[in-house]
Amino acid sequence: DAASDDDGFSMQLGGLELGRRDFVKAGAATGLASAAGAFAGCQTALPESATPSDSGGSGSQGSSAAHSHVVEPGEKDEYYGFWSGGHSGEIRVIGIPSMRELARIPVFNTEAARGYGYDDQSSQILEAGGGYTWGDNHHPNLSETDGDYDGEYLFVNDKANGRIARVNLKYFETDAIVDVPNTQAVHGCTVLSPDTKYVLGNGEFRTPLPNDGRDVNNPEKYTALFSAVDPESMETVWQVKVDGNLDIVDTGKEGRWAIASCYNSEEATEIQGMTHDDRDYAKVFDVPAIEKAVENGDYEEVNGVPVVDGTRDSDLNKGDEPLVRYVSTPKSPHCVEVGPDGKYAFIAGKLSPTVTMLDLDKIGEVDDPADAVAGRPKVGLGPLHTTFDGNGHAYTSLFIDSQVAKWDIEKAANAELGSSDPVVEKLDVHYNPGHIQALEAMTTDPDGEWLVSLNKLSKDRFLPVGPIHPDNDQLIHIGDGEKEMELVADHPAYPEPHDCIFAHKDKINPATTWDKADYEGEKPFVAEGDSGVERTGERSVHVKASSKRSEYGMFDFTVKEGDEVRLTMTNVEGVRDIIHGVAIPEHDVNLAIAPQDTREVTFTADDPGVYWIYCTYFCSALHLEMRSRMIVEPR
Ligand code: CUK
Ligand code: CUA
Predict the structure, then answer these.
(1) pLDDT one-digit tens code per residue, 557-581
(2) Is the pLDDT of residue 192 over 80?
(3) Which of 122, 110, 135, 201 minimizes the C-alpha distance to 168?
(4) Ligand at shortest distance from the CA of 332
């Protein structure tokens, strides 16, 4: 029961249960510059009452940074950062290096400030994506051309409902969500470099195939799928059935290899079984070989998708060109990242203090995929994610040590497996980093300079806001990798980012107003003077109106009780940043319309009466007067 659980927790800590105050005092008295944190267990980070340690944590870590991240008033950031929002379902746009939040892009969630999930178009995107009201997005990816970000799209997974969404970076808006068939949890997600041929999604949870009630009590028949989605049509074009599950994925730079990590090769359904064996594996997918198998008809169609068999015993894995190579790794690896030159895939050990380097030039040549292991530096406790400065260094987050380990890639390739010699430097970060990301680290030409460590816990770093704390994203200066790392800023993050990706501002070209041509044929453009009400049926009307500062195209309109009202509203402004909103009290109507855009909403006018429509965006000195009346006459 709960009470004895609590006792058990204190007991686990032995005599180390110190109050936070005592602990801070003790730390100060002994002149410790850093304290606590390293005692954290793998799955549970312990509170402040852990042992002081010289190797980890950051309880009293301070900063008087030599490198400023301040962007002066009127100046702009150099980089866009796109943060996954975890189970908030959104993407956040943050300027680097200032760490200022610039925008939130609702993706799997509804969001009132932008009217997302309120107007018909965005409601249809959510509906087509399965009709769920939330998602758990972890891995944002930017579309690439020639291995570099082309600024067109951002793709992100939904772990909760097995989906992938696309954000149109012209408008910073979600424009498609695909509910990937046959898959329950899309976790790893990446684009196939160098030209975004596919968006690839890792099915993490194993389920019966199809999951329609068959085999529910036969876990040995469950399976996990690796999925390829077409980035334009957003349709799932093929899937690969594998042994074990799939965690995270990245691709080589040449469009051939996709490398995924796997835990639970035991295929167990509870943790004891999942952690029974000593080893797991990475899976290396040969994309052209998979395409060939699909072309040859070597698949089973399940829910409209060709599913090829990539399990170890599959005939398709027997020949010279196996679809999937299974590479043995230490137990429960976590992230896979491919370095900028595409030579190595870096597979973080999580339970093992090492990172396994897989030689992608060799993986297609060797008989035993284990012979493609090119290095395995020992970097510290709990390695989760790796990023790059483009100058030969890798930086790996250490979840348990609460540190970033910087290490030399070529040294690691030449060192003995398990050597810690390649480690150049370690920096204490706040509690329990997950992803770390450096500028443009996923391209062939990373920019170095800044790195962000996305730490899961903030504890006492910020003003307390109740028991649910923000995360702590820390900005770290890395320069060109020749100098020491320096912690520059803390940044509180609302739950719960996992990963982020950075693009230089020159690679992103957002529109400042809408381009009518982009929705021609889908929605009308209601010019001033085109406003009016048209009865379209016994119980339906179409209301069309324009909006500008500070009036709607109609000061009032009349419908009948019970009418289904389709309201089409255009913002005819040509000036950027003049948004008009449409709020209709007691009808759950909420539109946000950017200049030259049209939004539509359909609702029922159930109750006779007068309803004052008002504008939600403060658009002019007469914003409060920007009103219209919906008159609902009794039938
Ligand atoms: S996962 Cu969250 S910290 Cu979903 Cu990329 Cu590693
Ligand atoms: Cu339009 Cu306020």
Answers:
(1) 999 999 999 999 999 999 999 999 9
(2) yes
(3) 122
(4) 1
Kindly list the protein residues whose Cβ atom lies closer than 6 A to any atom of ligand 2: 580, 615, 617-619, 623, 626
Question: Per mean pLDDT, which range of 54-68, 575-589, 602-616, 619-633 is the poorest?
Answer: 54-68
Res. 62: pLDDT tops 90: no
Close Cβ partners of 510 (under 8 Å, ≥ 6 residues apart): 169, 170, 171, 172
Q: Cα 384 to the chain's mean position, in Å?
A: 16
Element (H, E) at 2: helix 2-12
Distance, in Å, from the CA atom of 51 to the CA atom of 473, rounded to the nearest integer, reads 24
Distance CA 355, CA 176 (A): 36
Q: Is the separation of the CB atoms in 330 and 280 below 8 Å? A: yes
Kindly list the structural domains of the chain, giving each domain's residue range(s) and its CATH number in brackets, ordered by start. 334-511 (2.130.10.10), 524-633 (2.60.40.420)
> Which of 573-580's residues contact partners 24+ apart within 8 Å by CB, and which partners?
573/513, 573/548, 573/549, 574/513, 575/513, 576/512, 576/513, 577/512, 578/549, 578/619, 579/617, 579/619, 580/547, 580/548, 580/549, 580/615, 580/617, 580/619, 580/626
Question: What values do phi and psi take at 135, rounded to 5?
Answer: -155, 170
H or E segment to which residue 548 belongs = strand 540-548
DSSP 371: G
Contact predicate 165/174, CB 8 Å: yes
Residue pair 460/60 in contact by the 8 Å Cβ criterion: no
Return the DSSP state at 30: T
Q: What's the full length of the chain, in residues?
A: 635
Helices (H) and strands (E) in the chain, counts: 6, 40
Sign of CA dihedral 424, 428, 432, 436: negative
Kindly report, residue by residue over 151-173, the tens digit of the pLDDT. Answer: 999 999 999 999 999 999 999 99
At 82 the pLDDT is 98
| CA of 461 relative to ligand 1 center, distance in Å | 22
Would you tell me how many other CB atoms lie within 10 Å of the CB of residue 132? 17
ipTM of the complex: 0.97
Q: Which residues line ligand 1 (CB under 6 A)?
A: 138-139, 187, 248, 334-335, 384-385, 434-435, 498-499
Considering every ligand atom, which ligand is closest to the CA of 188? 1
Distance of alpha carbon 500 from alpha carbon 79, whole angstroms: 12
Residue of minimum CA distance from atom 4 in ligand 1: 138
Position in ligand 1 atom list of the atom nearest CA 499: 5
Counting ligand 1 atoms within 8 A of each CB, the residue from 337, 397, 499, 500 with the most, and so the one to mutate, is 499
**pLDDT, tens only, 528-538:** 999 999 999 99
- The atom of ligand 1 lying closest to the CA of 139 is 5
- HSE-up of residue 479 (Cα within 13 Å, Cβ side): 9
Q: What is the pLDDT of residues 448-487, one digit of tens each?
A: 999 999 999 999 999 999 999 999 999 999 999 999 999 9
Task: Write out the DSSP string of 425-453.
Answer: EEEE-SS-EEEEEEETTTSSS--EEEEEE
Q: How far is the CA of 569 from the centre of ligand 1 (A)?
A: 41
| 9 residue type, one letter | F
Query: Going by C-beta distance under 8 Å and a sequence separation of 6 or more, which residues neighbour residue 77?
Result: 71, 95, 96, 97, 98, 100, 505
